[in-house]
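In response to reviewer comment 3 from the previous cycle, which asked for concrete evidence that the modeling workflow produces usable outputs, we include below a single protein chain processed end to end. The sequence was submitted unchanged, and the resulting C-alpha cells are shown without manual editing.
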Amino acid sequence: MRGMNDTTLAITGEARRLFLEYLDKIERSAGALSAEQIWWRPNAACNSVGNLLLHLAGNLSQWVLAGLGGRPYERHRPEEFAAAGGQDGAALLARLRGVVEACCGVVQALTPEDLQRTLVIQGTTGSGFAALLHTVEHMSYHTGQIVHITKELLGEQGGIEFYPHLK
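The workflow returned the following C-alpha cells.
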C-alpha cells in the first residue's frame, strides 16, 4: 500500500473495527424491534430508531464515502429526521450495513496523506483524520441511543447484553 505506516494502519484498523462493533450492536438491538417500535418516538423532540438508522447512513455516506473517499453523494439530512415510517427495520439495517461495509473499504485504503489533507465536509473544515475521528465518535453516540431506546422498549425480556462474560 502506497505511503502506509504503522500509525496509519493502527488508526484505520481501529476505525474499521469500531464501525463493525457499533454495527453489530445496532443490528442486535434494532433487529429485535417490531416495525412499529422502529418508528416509535417518546415525543416530537426525540428521534426514533428508524430516524437514527437513516441519519447514520447519511452521515457516514457524506463524511466517509464522499468526504474521505471522493464518491458522489447528495445528502438530504432533514429527511433523515422527518421520516415517521416507511422502510422496515430489516431494510434500514441492510442499508446501514452496506454503507458501513463500503466505509470500511474506503478507510482501509486511506494513506497518511489522506489523513493529513484538508477537507470541507458539511461546512466543517478539518483534516482527513478529524473527519474519520468524527464519524467513529458520531456512530458511537447514536449506537448508544439505539441501544437505550431498544432496552427501554423491550426491557429485560429483550435480552440485549453485549458483555455477559463480565457479569
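The domain at 6-156 is CATH 1.20.120.450 (Four Helix Bundle (Hemerythrin (Met), subunit A)). We consider this sufficient to address the reviewer's concern, and the full set will be provided in the supplementary archive.
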